[in-house]
Amino acid sequence: MTSAGPTAAESSARAHSWVAHLREGGTTPWLAWAGRPATETGRTGPLPGAQQLELLRRINVAAQLSAQSRGGNDGSSTRLADRVLAAPAAGRGKADLPLVGATAPGFGPRPVDPESVSAHELLRVASVVLADDLVALGADPVRTSWPRPWRRRFRLVGDPVLVGALREDLLARGRPEGGPRPFLVAVGAPLDDLLARTWTQRCFESGTKPWAEWLRFWRERDQLPARADLVASVRRWNARRPLVRIVTDLDQLPRQVGVRHLPDVRVPGADQAELARRVAAVVGLKVPAPERPALMRTLQRRIPDHGVAPVGVPTREREWVASSAERMTRSITRAGYSVVGDLADLAPRTAPSATTGTGADDQQVLDLAIRMVVDPSWRGAGQTEGQVER
Amino acid sequence: MSKRVLLHVGCPKTGTSYLQDVLFRNQSLLREHDILYAADRFDAHFLAALDLMTLPWGGLETEAVGEWDRLADQVRGWHGTAIISHEIFARATPAQVARALASLGDAEVHLVLSVRDLVRQIPAEWQENVKHRSHITYARFLQTIRDPARDSKIGSWFWAVQEVPDILDRWGTSLPADRVHLVTVPPPGSDRGELWRRFSRTFGLDDLPLDLTAERENPSLGVPETSLLRTINQRVTSILAPPDYRPLVRELLAHQTLSRGVASARLGLAPEDHAWAQEMSRSWVEVLAERGYDVAGSLDDLIGTDLGTFADPDTATADELLPPALDAISALLVEAARLRAVEERLHEELREAHEERDRARLTTSYRIRRKVVASLEDSAAGRGTLDAYRRVRRRGAG
After folding, report:
1. Which of A49, A183, A305, B107 has the smallest count of CB within 10 Å of its CB?
2. For A207, which residue in chain B has the nearest alpha carbon?
3. Do A128 and B239 touch (CB under 8 A)?
4. Nearest residue of chain A to residue B90 (CA atoms)
5. Is the dihedral of CA A202, A204, A207, A208 positive or negative?
6. How far apart are CA A251 and CA A376, in angstroms?
7. Which positions in chain A touch B95 (Cβ < 8 Å)?
8. Which value does ipTM take for this structure?
């Protein structure tokens, strides 16, 4: 006679004891979990999904490694664990998945081994945890100083990552954009970079489609997004021709806005942009729409950088990018705008590196997300200074 | 404190749009009878559902911030019966269900689930996917939902909102069976008012003089129309953003134009899929009957009708697609003409505003002042002087 399998109550108790183990910082995978007496768990009610549980386990693994290297534990792990277990998986993907071998109803999604849950699914939960962190942190204050009366009047358009950071820097130095009859300074770059940075910046604003889909959207329309189209950007401001400067030589950019030097601006890596894209969608559900841009700017300033390259245009889209760059160059020439630099610099770069690294994979993004959950230093005071420059 | 809350959580494609529209349009009358349907817009409870379930939805989620808590707050503060209704609540996870029920306070919660047979729900859900930008073929859709792994977005969503016993496991476990109400959609060919009568009985709306005019429905499409829409999606979903897709494709083409093809063949299931769907439905009915829920209608309605003639939308011919395609082109041209008229009117208004501005600039004093300002703007000292002047003027004005 064969021995009977565990009863429903035993399976449920084992699952709850695993949850308790994870809440205490445990790292044992579900299938290796032998269980402990039910009286020690003290928890009942619905089990969190496999996504939440596996994310918590991986956070615990990362926290243990981090604690070993730092030699300590900050004691807030249970609070964090409860937040992770309560976080829903954002978006229209899979609902909470039951654990294989735990009590499961005869209906609903098929139970899974949590270790087999994909990075994509874990990211859906991690992005909610990080969005909550960001909302709790609040937006960094905008640095300003008295406007200098003799400043050069300018308005910046073009490369959204660069322009956004410079705008902030100049505002802090008493040189806000605008004013009467400003010079319209359109900051150009090789079009493949310009597209990548336009998408990247969108990720740190309202979120957008994944990089490949976004690029395909514009290629199939044979249009450029508003901020990557320098001529359209100039026309949108109705600027008179003598006051327009198309800048492709960044060394000469400071003079165009009336300063001696400008900070170097870091272009977020593919993993940072992708994580921001996911977080932005959740932040949109947490705060009123007008508050999201400042929060996402805060994330952009504080998100840890681990040296992953920015997204690049994949080979299949390069022909379209090259022809779009040629068209843009022709339009600028025909419009007769002053060019600071060389319009040939708008052509996409041909470096092989730009054609290989097209984006971050889910695992890279998940690693970044887990590091941000485990190490809250990015949320600490004093993280804003020096983040824009490097 | 609300005495009773009727929480209607699904399923999609069971006449929910009509019910919600009736409730929304009759809010005042319902209040007079101590029934609250708290909604300041027809889709208020949809937004509350997005908020509760942290569901981004093509940008609409930004309008949903705090909507669930706001709705729950209104319900808690109501002295009589409150109704909450949206079909996507069906997808809530156990944790979200627990949060939702906890936020309703100590009111007597009744769960309402309107249900329809899988034989009709499967084609209807495919159509709904097609109306939401998908270009998945019908065959692939069926293959996806029949995959027990439910790994795809489509499969996991379909079963989350259509697997009746699972929805009731998630929503109804903490409630006694007599507080769980199933409203079955009557079989095809039934009296048009029968579904409303079942809703009305369940929600306690009998004898109220409600305005039942159908203003907002979610009409179904025929086989060639759905096939055409899917083909259009193949071309446009990658280049048309959701805010443009919603009014132009879903509303104008699907709801206002293609749904008029009432003579077209209706979509059903192929013999093998029909048998599979009915077998699954029978197993559900067995489980539901054991649970002893209150049923408006009959659980047998869930089995679905016998196999009919199957028209395959994946093999619709060009001849079949031509009439709806011409209807679509006509509708789009009429809409383009309307938008051109709007654009023309806006241009006219802008031209008038420019003319008015130019007339104001024709005065001699304006021209002199403009010249002074222009010459001052050319030097740093001049710009400083202008700034100082403007600051003094602002202070004087304040």
Report:
1. A305
2. B59
3. no
4. A95
5. positive
6. 36
7. 46, 48, 86, 88, 96
8. 0.83
A132-141, A233-242, B380-389, range with greatest mean pLDDT: A132-141
Distance from CA of A235 to the nearest CA of B (A): 17
Distance from CA of B41 to the nearest CA of A (A): 18
| Residue A244, pLDDT above cutoff 80 | yes
Its pTM stands at 0.88
Over 70: is that where the pLDDT of B216 sits? no
| Residues A45, B98: C-beta atoms closer than 8 Å | yes
Shortest distance, CA B309 to any CA of chain A (angstroms): 31
Of A149, A217, A284, the CB nearest to B387: A149
Provide the 10 A C-beta neighbour count for residue A79: 10
Q: Under a CB-based contact definition with an 8 Å cutoff, are residues A190 and A346 in contact? A: yes
C-alpha of B377 from chain center:
55
Q: How far apart are CA A180 and CA B378, in angstroms?
A: 11
B149: nearest CB among A45, A88, A110: A110
In which order are the strands placed within the sheet that holds B81-85? B35-36, B81-85, B4-8, B108-115, B180-184, B294-296
Half-sphere exposure for A355 (CA within 13 Å, toward CB): 11
Mind listing the pLDDT tens digit for each residue in A88-99? 998 888 888 999
Instruction: Give me the domains of chain B, ranges plus CATH numbers.
Output: 4-118+153-218+269-305 (3.40.50), 363-398 (no CATH)
Q: How many helices (H) and strands (E) does chain B have?
A: 16, 6
Per-residue pLDDT, A2: 46
Number of DSSP helices (H) and strands (E) in chain A, helices first = 14, 4
